[in-house]
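seq as requested:
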Amino acid sequence: MRPEKKTQLGEADFSWKLKDYKKHGKEAPERIRNNTSKTEGEMMRDSEIEEWFSESVRVLEILKEEDKDKFLKIYNGFILDLEYLFSLKRIDEGALEFAQDLNNFDF
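struct tokens:
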């Protein structure tokens, strides 16, 4: 079960704080343990966000062709994290709009 951190669409993994990891019995990343009041999304460097975005798009392109159900599950989480990052002004609207267009995940 994931914590009830909500964005406009639902919950985002990047919105977890240390208390959320503890509440759900999950191991928190070191930087969360060292900054207990911040979220992963708040602490990620721009280069980390760019790398995560690029890798996620590549994985989603493959999954869309190979496993539609898994694609949709991962895609929905990807969008939630992007929406959370957008709410923090960590990504621009263009990145979010790109990801919301499913045609961008076709090979």
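The chain has a mean pLDDT of 89.
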